[in-house]
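Dear U.,

For the methods section draft, I wanted the exact inputs and outputs in one place so we can describe them consistently. I've listed the two proteins in the order they'll appear in the manuscript figures. Please don't edit the token lines directly; just add comments below if something needs changing.

First protein:
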Amino acid sequence: MNRLAVRCTEINKKFGDSSALQDMSLELEEGKFLALLGPSGCGKTTLLRLIAGLERPDSGTIEVGERIVAGKEVFVPPEKRRVGLVFQDYALFPHMDVGANVAFGVRRDSNRPRRVEEVLSLVGLRGLEHRMPHQLSGGQQQRVALARALAPRPTVLLLDEPFSNLDADLRVRVRVEVRDVLACAGVTVVFVTHDQEEALFMGDLVGVMNAGRLEQIDSPEGIFHRPATPFVAQFIGTADFLTGQVEDRTIISEVGHIPLQQELPAGQIVKIMVRPDFIDIEPAETGRGIVTGRIFQGIHYLYSIRLPSGAVIRSLQHHNREYPPGLRVALRMNPGHRITYFVDERSAGGYVIGSGQAVSEVCDEGESRGDEH
């Protein structure tokens, strides 16, 4: 195991009567890129400010580079933590040129000009040392802020939604550039965003926060395909849920009978995660689903399908499969997708459906056992 760059242990933080973080714990190895994702008010920016030293935790400990910087009777000020921070608005000094902005946090010695030149080259701004911030584009200002944060060689770099002020096209281009720069720099990064696509692209690891707690931390693929809770499943990607019941090592659901590979007791009620690309639909007079809506997405339509129980799931279909609202359809689960199911709001297991494992729906409603669940 590599050395830890950041360790937070049972961090709690309140603002008045409002709890911002509850028993927050995480560990991040050196050189890793963690993208923190969650809805507004979930505590992700508060966590960044605590690591940076801009706030004090009410309890718990924070370590940076295996050195305790906040804890019982310990509080290291921000300037002594070796932590870099890039704000949403970049916070460049408007009266200083690019070179002076980047040099601001670097020790005044003979190596200072060389270090400024190094980081400006790293971010692709060499030769712009004498430009003023107002003479730069939004993307260039963002890179100056990044260079200033990297110049003092921080142990950890904290990025608080650094692309939020950029328009959509520039945002996509700049995040690619920043990801490449940070990979070259080899710095440990904690990156806060509310954009799931951004988190999946930027992070070696993705952490999903909810109501002051870390629900799950995993690789981008792991957190998408193996969500630990229904909240994570819904927050990362698009997910619907079906109720199923265990009978004879099979989950009985409204869209098919799913072979069960884990041991669960007969009669156990489970919640099955269904993403839109899991479900195929075909017009059928005896089909058990009814199209209630569709959204055109260019190469795809996203259909909403109401089931006999009243549950609604979505299905992603190619643009040449155009079905009107009110059409009755048959549904089946496509093979090759990972089925994840939950018991008491926690993942109870999952596996990839092989060809022939998922039984297509039974169109004769009298034969189907899914309606009551």
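Second protein (the one for the lower panel):
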Amino acid sequence: MPIWLAPYFKGRFNAMTSLALLLLLGALLWETLPWLVGNAVWTNDLDACRAARGEGACWGLVGEKWRLILFGRYPFEELWRPTLACLTMVSACIVLSRREWWSTRVIGGAVLVVVFAVLLMLGGFAGLSEVPTERFGGLALTLLLAIVGNLLSLPLAVLLALGRCSDLPFIRTVCSGFVELVRGVPLVTVLFMASFMFPLFLPSGMNPDVLLRVAVGLTLFSAAYQAEVIRGGINSVSRGQIEAAQSLGMGYWQTQTKVVLPQAFRVVVPPLVNSFIALFKDTSLVTIVSLFELFGSLKLALADPQWRPFYVEGFLFVALVYWVFCSAMSRYATGLEKDFAQARR
């Protein structure tokens, strides 16, 4: 038996449970595979899809509407720009995932790559036509909001966590109040306030871009939750190590960056990645402020009455895209956790 299968069949109870689940999975595949693959229509033939309805899936919906689903209302002739932006942002994330490459230069370069991706999608320079943010959509907008939100929320979360653990009452009270306030309201409320209510408090004629306001709202919301995760890791570091660092003459920031935070991050990798995954999925809520990310772009595609009956296939395709990105983050977190466990041993 392969090594990776051994834990699933270790002991009688585990073996019986694994066999039962395998039988259940086999029964589900037996019922669904003919509809998903065997009798499915793979061409953009609407008549064939109608004829196969109920017997096979119509993947022609994806072939017909993939531009709208993946890129939203972005100008068709300029689709190379969000495509290149997505590839550069994903490449930056892959580079940052390699622990042996972590350095100030690499992190700064990744931030510049994300800035380049945003500017590329906006245009207005080097002969590129300017595209308003209202035209952003699809997978490109989902990746943009998730990556920018996580890049900005993590350092803010570290500062909030340190503030909540501070011995200074004013700083501790301000940070605790912010975290409790943001965590006490749903994300929909934060997005609604950022999009519709926030401009009312600004001087007349001053109205920041809606995408910028939504990105700030997502960042602040995610930072509040990540701060609590990081605070738990900070509290797990023994007081003796902090006192030992202070006895060696280390200042506050040296102690935190060299002793406390490295150990804290080793502890909080799984819940922190859960926050990253949650933010990636929570981007679907921006549809309430008329920004059509991946899920919202699917709704635009299904507005076509001819293809609307095949909405199940559209939802399955979008679910597959979400699953690919979320499972990749989860697998990376698992590997990182194993590396940290070996380092602790």
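Candidate sentences for the figure legend, describing the second protein: The two ends are 29 Å apart (CA to CA). The chain has two domains: 1-38, 39-74+131-344.

Thanks,
Y.
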